[in-house]
């Protein structure tokens, strides 16, 4: 018979869970349920499992603590849509930073259903109201709502990442979209650019509103106006950035008087736009300069290398997760806080000088 006065030699997850079950005097399925959702196991049983967990070293101490208090150790991250976000790589970068912080703090990460249709959102709410999760990160989207039931009513700590919802009392960790685009546009204006082409995200989207606002503010500071920028796009989500960029190239080609500077609200849009207009005969940056937003590593390998406003995804993901864990553990953090981590422009060869004395030649390609 196995003795438990010393830690046994543990060889795998199945053996570990069976050892915990035998020591606690419960079924293996009960251990599994207690680890995944402590609130659904009675306090007396939970205490025995927690003691066995600690004795055997089955899980981090944080998990055993959560078993004792009857709270889940699962953090959910709710994504805005599919993991396939083209070249932007925003979601994978966020998930890597979040997961690393979650594991280091003794919690587990659950990725919510990705479709964000009614059935998916209902499932998210069922998990939240049923006690399966301890807290939630919402990535660049609104809170799930189905049949007048909102995630915000589940009584869980929630932190919004990349979308500022602090005015709605949801702690938010964001970047400075508006200021970053304003500063980048100032650099273009300093290089002699006065006519702009803006490739837009979905109409009314928080990021698109902020980024276009930064562009317009920079124009106004320079004595220009919103009439000096032509908008393209606005119909498709960021998930379809490549398609948006291709349509924008057609819109650009149809203009009688071509802008000399393009600001795209995502890297995907800029990459497909730049490729397409070069096939049409325009040169980058001699004929048109291009700046995008996101900071995807692939931008460095475009031809020419693409200038992009880099979002600090690792810092954003880490800060949002740490804030959520602090709220879950009642560490005295302000639940109405707003943390801003600035983005930075990475200037590459896609930006050219349009001033009269600039060394680069300029031309208008034939149709």
Overall description:
The structure is a single chain. The protein is an alpha/beta fold and 367 residues long. The chain has three domains: 15-66, Orthogonal Bundle (434 Repressor (Amino-terminal Domain)); 74-175 and 313-343, Response regulator (Rossmann fold), CATH 3.40.50; 177-309, Rossmann fold (3-Layer(aba) Sandwich). Helices cover 40% and strands 15% of the residues. It has helices at 13-24, 28-36, 43-56, 61-69, 90-104, 118-129, 177-190, 206-221, 241-254, 267-280, 313-328, and strands spanning 74-78, 108-111, 135-139, 145-146, 149-150, 158-161, 172-174, 196-200, 229-233, 261-264, 289-294, 307-310, 338-340, 344-346. Strand 8 (196-200), helix 8 and strand 9 form a beta-alpha-beta unit. It is elongated and about 85 Å long. Mean pLDDT is 85; it is low at 1-15 and 361-367.
């Amino acid at each position: 018979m196995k003795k438990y006065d010393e830690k046994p030699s543990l060889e795998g997850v199945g053996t570990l869970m069976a050892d915990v079950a035998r020591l606690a005097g419960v079924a293996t399925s009960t251990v599994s349920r207690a680890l995944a959702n402590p609130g659904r196991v009675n306090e007396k049983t939970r205490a025995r499992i927690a003691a066995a967990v600690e004795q055997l070293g089955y899980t981090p101490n944080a998990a055993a603590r959560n078993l004792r208090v009857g709270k889940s150790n699962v953090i959910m991250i709710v994504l805005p849509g599919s993991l396939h976000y083209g070249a932007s790589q925003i979601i994978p970068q966020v998930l890597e930073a979040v997961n690393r912080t979650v594991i280091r703090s003794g919690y587990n990460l659950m990725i919510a259903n990705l479709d964000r249709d009614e059935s998916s959102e209902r499932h998210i709410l069922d998990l939240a109201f049923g006690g399966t999760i301890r807290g939630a990160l919402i990535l660049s989207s609104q809170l799930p709502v189905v049949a007048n039931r909102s995630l915000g009513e589940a009584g869980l700590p929630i932190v919004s990442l990349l979308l500022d919802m602090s005015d709605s009392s949801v702690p938010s960790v964001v970047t400075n979209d508006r200021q970053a685009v304003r500063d980048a546009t100032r650099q273009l204006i300093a290089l002699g650019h006065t006519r702009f082409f803006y490739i837009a995200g979905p109409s009314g989207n928080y990021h698109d509103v902020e980024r276009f606002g930064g562009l317009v503010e920079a124009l106004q500071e320079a004595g220009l106006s919103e009439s000096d920028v032509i908008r393209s796009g606005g119909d498709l989500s960021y998930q379809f950035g490549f398609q948006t960029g291709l349509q924008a190239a057609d819109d650009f080609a149809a203009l009688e008087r071509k802008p000399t500077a393009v600001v795209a609200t995502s890297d995907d849009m800029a990459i497909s736009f730049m490729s397409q207009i070069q096939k049409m005969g325009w040169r980058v940056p001699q004929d048109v300069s291009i700046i995008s937003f996101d900071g995807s590593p692939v931008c460095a390998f475009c031809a020419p290398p693409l200038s992009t406003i880099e979002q600090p995804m690792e810092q954003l993901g880490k800060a949002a997760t740490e804030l959520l864990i602090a709220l879950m553990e009642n560490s005295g953090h302000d639940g109405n806080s707003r943390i801003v981590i600035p983005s930075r422009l990475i200037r590459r060869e896609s930006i050219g000088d349009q001033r009269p004395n600039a060394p680069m030649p300029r031309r208008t390609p034939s149709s």
